[in-house]
Specification:
82% helix; mainly alpha; 216 residues; two-stranded antiparallel sheet
Length: 216
């Protein structure tokens, strides 16, 4: 029964992911913004994992098959996604000299996982990558009033939380919240409902003060 519930959530997650990609691709064709392209590529990679997860939930197949030592298939996919996430950040920050760094880190951690049966290095890696990316994007998004950056930052934040706890029901639920946050970012939600329009507030405040003066 639990597997069926996870499957339903995964289908909803996948649907919002497709809608997000369609929107970012449409916008990218209009202005060729590098962030839109990066988001499209990253979410496409994320949805490949989602397709696998849907197959797992539908068939009852165990994805935690050990490859070598303490390394299993699920963790390999996690490492791959975090590698792509770091590549995404370095691309946005225009740091081509660091493009090979995520691959080196992932290779080192995977080898370590084979030799030492401990998930702590993976959790730490997930926390640093997820929370670091989230902080950078949310901070930059607030500064530049960029709703897509805010949405992507929230996506990394919730995804990182899910990966940190390593509890399936939390991971699946937080992934859905993450995708919804990103979906809203592509639809202009944060620009319209979250960011404060300073100029408009000043006009309203000025009008309010003027009315008080007239009354007095």
């Amino acid at each position: 029964m639990a597997e069926f519930g996870f499957l339903v959530v995964e289908i909803i997650y996948f649907t919002f992911g497709i809608l997000t990609i369609l929107k970012t691709m449409k916008n990218w064709k209009l202005n060729k913004n590098r962030m839109l392209l990066a988001v499209t590529v990253y979410i496409s990679a994320v949805l490949v994992r989602s397709i696998i997860d849907m197959g797992v939930y539908a068939s009852g197949f165990d994805i935690d098959i050990t490859v070598a030592g303490g390394l299993d298939i699920g963790m390999i996919m996690g490492f791959i996604l975090f590698t792509i996430q770091l590549e995404f950040m370095f691309y946005l920050m225009d740091l081509p000299k660091l493009y090979t760094l995520p691959v080196i880190i992932t290779t080192y951690l995977m080898m370590g996982r084979i030799l030492v049966d401990s998930s702590m290095p993976f959790i730490i890696y997930a926390m640093i990558t997820g929370y670091g990316s989230a902080f950078f994007l949310i901070k930059d998004g607030r500064k530049s009033r960029n709703g897509l950056a805010i949405g992507m930052g929230l996506f990394f934040l919730f995804w990182g939380l899910g990966s940190t706890f390593q509890i399936e029901i939390l991971f699946v639920s937080l992934r859905l919240v993450a995708m919804l946050a990103l979906f809203l970012g592509t639809r202009g939600f944060y620009e319209k409902y979250v960011f404060v329009n300073v100029e408009e507030e000043q006009k309203i405040m000025g009008t309010w003060i003027a009315k008080l003066v007239v009354k007095e």
